Amino acid sequence: MDNVFGEILKDLRNEKGLGQVELAKTLDLSKGIISLWENGLREPGMNSLILLAKFFGVTIDYLVGLEK
Predict the structure, then answer these.
(1) 58 in a structural domain
(2) Virtual CA dihedral for 27, 29, 6, 10, nearest 10 degrees?
(3) In this structure, is residue 31 part of a structural domain?
(4) Can you tell me the distance from the alpha carbon of 29 to that of 6, in angstroms, rounded to the nearest whole number?
(5) CA dist., res. 42 & res. 10, Å (int)
(6) pLDDT of res. 68
(7) This prediction's pTM
(8) Do the beta carbons of residue 57 and residue 68 sit within 8 Å?
(9) Which ranges constitute the DSSP H helices of 1-68?
(10) Tens digit of pLDDT for each residue in 18-54?
């Protein structure tokens, strides 16, 4: 299974010049969960998707690879 969400999250994080630790601190999440998401080992819930979409200024559809 493709890890589209993880790849998009990593790209957005890198575009902002943030490491996993910095992103986690900014969003009040654990560094471990960012790593799990980026590596496709866990999927975020709706609240996390909303948080990420607002932070990065993108839609949830974009985050999950439904729009470019």
Answers:
(1) yes
(2) 50
(3) yes
(4) 16
(5) 14
(6) 77
(7) 0.93
(8) no
(9) 4-15, 20-27, 31-38, 46-56, 60-63
(10) 999 999 999 999 999 999 999 999 999 999 999 999 9
Any idea which residue has 């490491």 for tokens?
19
Q: For residue 67, give both structure tokens.
A: 């729009």
What type of residue is 56?
Answer: F
Query: Cβ–Cβ contacts within 10 Å for residue 10, how many?
Result: 17
| pLDDT attached to residue 12 | 98
In a domain, 28, yes or no: yes
Give the whole-angstrom CA distance, residue 2 versus residue 51: 23
Query: Is residue 68, in this structure, part of any structural domain at all?
Result: no
Q: What is the CATH number of the domain that holds 11?
A: 1.10.260.40
In the chain, the N- to C-terminal Cα span, in Å, equals 19
Residue ranges making up the domain that contains 33? 4-63
Band (1; pLDDT cuts 50, 70, 90): low
